[in-house]
Write a structure and sequence with these properties.
545 residues, 20 helices, Rossmann fold, Syntaxin Binding Protein 1, Chain A, domain 2
């Protein structure tokens, strides 16, 4: 509980994150005092900080050979000083850190002032008060409805995770006496995670029925808008896909695209067998009764067949039109393999394909940027030039940097890309030896490993601490996972499979939204303060709950 040491470590992290080179530390009156308490001048000089300036000083010289590390309180005055600084930058690049949370509107104002694109990083991602309240209410409503009073673990690397954990705990504690919580031998566990720890999963094309529908058509409250499908009939312009009321969908939502095609064919053949014959004779009361009894079921089946044939047909058309099989193979290579030479060649080859959509082009470059962020032979600048030559707008090209700001190596609390421990390396080695059954489904989200470690009792307290003094001694039985920044249907599939394979464990997944790629990029844009001129790739958004 050494506050001085904690502050010193925070400032050290700021300085080290800017990389090698001469630096200036740009502060306000209060943060100047904070730094002077925890660091001597000789100590800070050893970290290549050669100049100390105040943000409100009017007499500073332009020194383009210096990197600026800004450590400021998030006051209106400091934000305004910083806006003026970015409009006429005196240093080559700016790394901006605030001593407390800053609003998204202020981050947006800073982004708009950065016309010369000198800002490399802004550490200001935080809760909007209304969103924190909404997530708290949603989580506590679920807990109260289930009559569960959980122990809470959160992602230590995410301040947002801790704040939500504290907010939920406060409500549960306050309302505890009003609700008849079920006393269980092993208390349920609420695990709060941050989407920024795994920015790769929502960028990938997924090949299960439910995930494909959401990615390519958009699934909003179980409804799909098919009005833009060529030649669509009036009664199929909007359809409902609900596992509660649609047996075919319930049985197929987690199956891959190839299996869906076979099952659609079987559904149609079954329909043909049961279809009432046009010349059917109704010679008796019993014949007429049988027809009346069977017709509603036939009508329901007819609607089910038409709906799924239309949906699968449109998915097939989009997969072919956008060449998504080829795109997805390269995405999986970027997400799962460690071969930079092949990866750069594959991405370049696809970027030269005139049929590659803008969304898919940007997505591939984002995956490359996340995967090879610090590779010594990175070709990211060259790939950005390729995007420009393809006609991708500047604002959309900037989303590549936004994704790195949101979920890059500096932000992640875990080693998303490269396994470091012996067990993980061995697993990857044997996976490579066995080969891959399906090249389009190699990737597993980080959530799989996190939950697997949790179930086995190996999830590190140092990375996912308990809120409060108590901790679980036994294996958890009821687990509620909440992803700040949104979950995906690939992660829903992971939870589904873990529920099937882990005896005695029940897992529920929730998030601030259910993302497809487009909605995730909107989330990234809001979180990093970079606004676009229109939603990338069109207007089919993610599902919010």
């Amino acid at each position: 509980m050494n506050v001085t040491l904690a502050v010193k470590q925070y400032i050290s992290k700021m300085v080290e994150s800017s990389g090698p080179g001469m630096k200036v530390l740009l502060m306000d009156r209060e943060t100047t005092s904070i730094v002077s308490v925890v660091y001597t001048q000789s100590e800070i000089l050893q970290k290549e900080v050669y100049l100390f300036e105040r943000i409100d000083s009017q007499n500073r010289d332009s020194m383009k050979h210096l990197k600026a590390i800004c450590f400021l309180r998030p006051t209106k005055e400091n934000v305004e000083h910083l806006i003026q600084e970015l409009r006429r930058p005196k240093y080559s690049v700016y790394f901006i850190y605030f001593s407390n949370v800053i609003s998204k509107s202020e981050i947006k104002a800073l982004a708009e002032a950065d016309e010369q694109e000198v800002v490399a990083e802004v550490q200001g991602r935080s809760w909007e008060p209304s969103m924190l309240s909404r997530c708290t209410q949603g989580l506590t409503s679920v807990l109260l409805a289930l009559k569960k009073c959980p122990m809470i673990r959160y992602q230590l690397s995410s301040d947002m995770s801790k704040r939500l954990a504290e907010s939920v705990k406060q409500i549960i504690t306050k309302e505890y006496e009003l609700f008849d919580f079920r006393k269980t031998e092993v208390p349920p566990l609420l695990l709060i995670l941050d989407r920024s720890d795994d920015a790769i999963t929502p960028l990938l094309n997924q090949w299960t029925y439910q995930a494909m529908v959401h990615e390519l058509l958009g699934l909003n409250n179980n409804r799909i808008d098919l009005s833009r499908v060529p030649g669509i009939s009036k009664d199929l312009r909007e359809v409902v896909l609900s596992a509660e009321n649609d047996e075919f969908y319930a049985n197929n939502l987690y199956l891959n695209f190839g299996e869906i095609g076979t099952n659609i064919k079987n559904l149609m053949e079954d329909f043909q067998k049961k279809k009432p014959k046009g010349q059917q004779k109704l010679e008796s009361i019993s014949d007429m009764k049988a027809f009346v009894d069977n017709y509603p079921q036939f009508k329901k089946m007819s609607g089910t067949v038409s709906k799924h044939v239309t949906v699968v047909g449109e998915l097939s058309r989009l997969v072919s039109e956008r060449q998504l099989m080829e795109v997805s193979e390269v995405e999986q290579e970027l997400a799962c393999q460690n071969d930079h030479s092949n990866a750069q060649q594959s991405v370049r080859r696809l970027l030269h394909n005139p049929r590659l959509s803008e969304l898919d082009a940007v997505r591939l470059v984002m995956l490359y940027a996340l995967r090879y962020e610090r590779h010594s032979s990175s070709i990211l600048p060259s790939l950005m030039d390729e995007l420009s030559r393809k006609g991708v707008s500047e604002r959309h090209r900037r989303t590549v940097q936004s994704v790195v700001e949101y979920g890059g190596k500096r932000v992640r609390g875990s080693d998303l890309i490269t396994p470091t421990d012996a067990v993980a390396i061995t697993k990857q080695f044997f996976k490579g030896l066995k080969g891959v059954e399906n090249v389009y489904t190699q990737h597993q989200p980080l959530l799989h490993d996190t939950l697997d470690q949790l179930i086995k009792g190996r999830l590190k307290d140092s990375q996912f601490p308990y809120l409060g003094a108590s901790s679980l001694r036994d294996r958890p039985q009821d687990i509620i996972v909440f992803l700040i920044g949104g979950a995906t249907y690939e992660e829903a599939l992971t939870v589904y499979n873990l529920n099937r394979s882990s005896t005695g464990v029940r897992i529920v997944l929730g998030g601030s939204s259910i993302h497809n790629t487009k909605s995730f990029l909107e989330e990234v844009t809001l979180a990093t303060g970079h606004s676009g001129d229109r939603p990338l790739g069109g207007g089919r958004h993610g599902t919010r709950h």
